[in-house]
Amino acid sequence: MNIFDLVGNTPLVELKKISSELAGVSIWAKAEFRNLSGSVKDRAARAMLLEGIATGQLRPGKTIIDASSGNTGIAYAVLGAVLGYPVTIYLPANASRERKTILACCGATVVETSPLESSDGAYLAAKTEAEAHPEKYFWPNQYNNDANWKAHYNTTGVEIWEQTGGKVTHFITGMGTSGTFMGTSRRLKEYNKNIEVVAVQPDSPFHGIEGTKHMDSTLRPGFYDEKFPDRFVTANTEAAYEMTRRLAREEGLFVGVSSGANVQAALDLGRTLPSGSLIVTMLCDSGFRYLSDEFWCVPDEVAGDGEGI
Fold it and tell me: Which of 291, 236, 293, 302 lies closest to 267 in space, CA to CA?
């Protein structure tokens, strides 16, 4: 087996305890933490790097460079190591310690940018460096590379359709680059135009849901189409934190906060749907990338030794 074959074909799991709160509606989730580097971003990273090689833009002697809030950078680092290319990642300084450590362990060079400028600041800094030295870098530009969303069109959407036996009625997920949402939704709509695709956004520009964008207050990805979602819903940071804790304690799924936001949004959506509806969402990455984040610890549950979850 080629190590690149460890990207994609992730399990679809039913969230039975969460779904039990609904009247005849089930919530299923793609376990994207089962990908090679541990997140949904492996799919897009693989597609962008392989396209770069196929077109001759990525060739020996070049360094892979891009901006990331963490997961895509880790995917580049892992896949770059396999392919034999050095990797430089521009990353907001407030990214979790775990993500920085993983990047370093995989040999990536990390350039930290202002946390006040979030992922936009990292993007602009990487863009400046890449455009100043095109002979040195291959810049996939994940926010504006069609290979990003096409990776999900060609894989994620197909997998969901097949794994549900064509019974999926709703697809709902948050957006960072929007590649997962746009690509998966387009493919599902081709299978059945009546599948409702729902985009999740933080309810404020100032939020704590890592890996997601509040589109009205940030640089928009080039392939994002705001007219495509059938509807938008918002995710509250504290509610996302609580659902992330619930997923670990009730479903045995130790995932990151963007996954919690997705499942909370799916649960809220499910309360409005008729019996028989089947919702699919994304578990984007593992909770191990956020162990140092304080949201795992709930004040009234903390024991004398200071331990939380």
Answer: 236
